[in-house]
Amino acid sequence: MLDESPRKLVQVEDLRLYFPIHTGVLRRHTGDVKAVDGVSFDIFEGETLGLVGESGCGKSTVGRALLRLYDLSGGKVRIDGTDISDLSVGELRPIRPKMQMVFQDPQASLNPRMTVSEIIGEPLVEHTDLDAAGRQARVLELMDQVGLNRIFQNRFPYEFSGGQRQRIGIARALALNPKFIVCDEPIAALDVSIQAQVVNLLEDLQDKLGLTYLFISHDLSMVRHIADRVCVMYLGRVAELSPRDDLYANPLHPYAKALLSAVPEADPNAETTRQRIILKGDVPSPANPPKGCAFCTRCPEVEAICKTEAPALREVAPGRHVACHFVEIQNRAGSTGPKKPEAIEPNQQGERA
Amino acid sequence: MPDGALPVLDVKDLKTVFRTRGGEVHAVNNVSFHLQPGELLGVVGESGSGKSVTMMSLIGLLPQPPADIRGGQVMLGDIDLRTAPAEVLRGVRGKRIGFVFQDPMTSLNPVFTVGSQIMEPLRLHMGMTKAQATERAVELLELVGIPDARKRLKSYPHQFSGGMRQRVMIAIALACDPEVLIADEPTTALDVTIQAQILELVKDLRKKLGMAIIWITHDLGVIAGIADRVMVMYGGQVVEQAPVKDLFARPQHPYTRALLKTVPHLTGARQARLQVIEGQPPILTAHPTACAFRARCTHRFERCDAENPLRRPVGHGHDVACHWVVNAEVAHA
Q1: Which residues of chain B carry a pLDDT beneath 70?
Q2: Between β-strands B40-44 and B229-234, what pairing exists: parallel, antiparallel or unpaired?
């Protein structure tokens, strides 16, 4: 991170992922669910990019598309310099060890009939030529790394609690020394007191191994804790992409504002004085998104132009990207007020051309 | 008790055990609490802490067996719900006590229209005619903020979004003007912006209708914004109980303290590292003879292993079940 311009490990350009809708007896292609509709961002080496949004906004789909678990409908994904958008399954294989995933539900993502050492060792069987003894040594090393007692190596997933299962999932993701890990809601299924254990583990591993994370979550407080930069998605598009402290101190996009104001704080005094923006209605269907800005149906600051023209994601301040027609004006107005000095401090890994 | 008013609901020493093939699970151990008229009592705890089972036990919603309610008294006015016959309980559920469950998709019947599900308790408990029930159902849907209410009566649950379904659930729970509303993680399955809508709705309904509410959640943020009083559960027991501001300002039990420190905040200084509660929640295979939290507690001493602490008052309306806290109080006095 001392580097003047950190290297872009993951580059996403205009990523699109449409799921076709087939109707009628002939199963004609009659439309698309536009789960991800033109998303662009970069992830720098060694950083954690938080990806937040409500259910159905496409955040998990982005995570999976980055690892080519889906075939892309459009756009480019470059990981560590290699364009993986159009590679075949065979061509992807040698690249897979670089990029791994930790899933939300540690119950569903571990094979119940495999022991812990088989689960953690499986990627080694697939991708390395280690012999049984070598694999065994590596599995034990991994178990130490994630804080699982070695004596558990021959146990089955059902014998573990949720937090321990998530540790197994993390050990499996680490087996091939990846550079980049997509963490898809890794703590959502865990109890509050266990969440902190897993998040601390992820942070320790990042420090030790120099990992880069895409941390997908709907828990905005936890994202504030773990992420360096945060990308807020709404209905398949990026609403705002900002360095963490800037976003939480002064969200620019109206949706980011509403989302942050909706999160309840564990402080009864703050709760009584807090101004909350209550959004009307629900998220529109991604099969039939509104014309213009995706947020125009619920936006409290909506104007005529929002309903006809989709705003592009623009850099409105150093490192701060916002897709809203009116943000530039708000930003100028905001800068006359008591603007936080760290908003322009270059220690965040924002883009500085 | 904070005020002189008679509690609407008074629970004493409720004990529920599940008999399973692997032995007994002591899910609720001598839980006592009361609910004042018009008050919102928040119940916080992790999964397995017994918060849902407590509420299900007190209204007789658990199938017996495997559940076995071993003891206790649940006074709703002058009826003891624990010993009351089934017919009396049927007259109470849905009429004097309303329920809202966590997942609005699975708790609504998918093959009946929303209207018929709202009208069911009205016709059953209030003896309304179909026409009267329809009018009341429209009124209820409008009350919970569903636009175009009369038309929506004919819709099926799948035609509503998650937030709208939860509004329907609230409408059903409120249908017969209950004295007590029990809401079990009603916003956990919802997105934050929808959760904010539902929380606003409940605050609004409380002002209008003034019923007492028990709100179960694991989210300390939700509790902070909505509750008057909070009860913290751990290992099937109430470990601390206090007015909401008092609990957040002066948490006493080591579990409550740790829990409040373990959640990251949206504002204020960022911690470099999250505080962790080491270890796992207890497995409740026997009636507790020692403190349930002792294995994870940083203040553990001999007495914690020997004796299960009882709840003792440590302030106005604030009580806590912890040997260490009581010792410290004595030392300070």
Answers
A1: 1-4, 329-333
A2: parallel
Say whether B225 and A225 touch across the interface (CB within 8 A): no
Tell whether B222 lies on the interface with A, counting CB pairs under 8 A.
yes
- CA distances (Å), A78 to each of A49, A85, A87, in order? 16, 7, 11
Q: Which of A55, A196, A203 sits opposite B191 (nearest CB)?
A: A55
Instruction: Please report how the helices B162-174 and B130-143 are oriented relative to each other, as an axis angle in degrees rounded to 10.
Output: 130
How far is C-alpha B53 from the geometric centre of its chain's CA atoms? 10
Strands B212-217 and B40-44: parallel
pLDDT single digits (tens) B227-277: 999 999 998 899 999 999 999 999 999 999 998 888 888 888 888 888 888
Question: CB contact, 8 Å: B79 with chain A?
Answer: no
Put simply, the chain B residues between 89 and 118 with a CB less than 8 A from any chain A CB are none
- Residue A76's nearest CA partner among A7, A17, A6, A5 is A17
Q: Are B262 and A161 in contact (CB < 8 Å)?
A: no
- The residues spanned by each domain of chain B are 110-175
Q: What is the pLDDT of residue B164?
A: 82
What kind and span of H or E run contains B90? Answer: helix B86-92
Considering only CA atoms, which of B273, B291, B272 is closest in space to residue B282?
B291
> What does the alpha-carbon distance between residue B73 and residue B32 come to, in Å, rounded to a whole number?
9
A136 pLDDT band (50/70/90 cuts)? very high
Q: What HEC string does chain A produce?
A: CCCCCCCEEEEEEEEEEEEEEEECCCCEEEEEEEEEEEEEEEEECCCEEEEECCCCCCHHHHHHHHCCCCCCCEEEEEECCEECCCCCHHHHCCCHHHEEEECCCCCCCCCCCCCHHHHHHHHHHHHCCCCHHHHHHHHHHHHHHCCCCHHHCCCCHHHCCHHHHHHHHHHHHHCCCCCEEEEECCCCCCCHHHHHHHHHHHHHHHHHHCCEEEEEECCHHHHHHHCCEEEEEECCEEEEEEEHHHHHHCCCCHHHHHHHHHCCCCCHHHHHHCCCCCCCCCCCCCCCCCCCCCCCCCCCCCCHHHHCCCCCCEEEECCEEECCCCHHHHHHHHHHCCCCHHHCCCCCCCCCC
| Selected residue of B168, B200, B253, B276 to mutate for chain A interface (largest A Cβ count, 10 A) | B276
Asked if A276 reaches chain B (Cβ–Cβ under 8 Å), the answer is: yes
Of the candidates B44, B23, B19, the one whose C-alpha atom is nearest the C-alpha of residue B214 is: B44
Q: Which CATH number fits domain A8-227: 1.10.1740.10, 3.40.50.300, 3.40.50.2300, 3.40.50.2000?
A: 3.40.50.300
Give, in order, the Cα–Cα distances in Å from B61 to each of A138, B58, B86, B163: 50, 8, 11, 25
Q: Which residues of B touch A260 (CB under 8 A)?
A: 266
As a whole number, the mean pLDDT across chain A is 86
Cβ contacts (< 8 Å) between A185 and chain B: which residues?
none
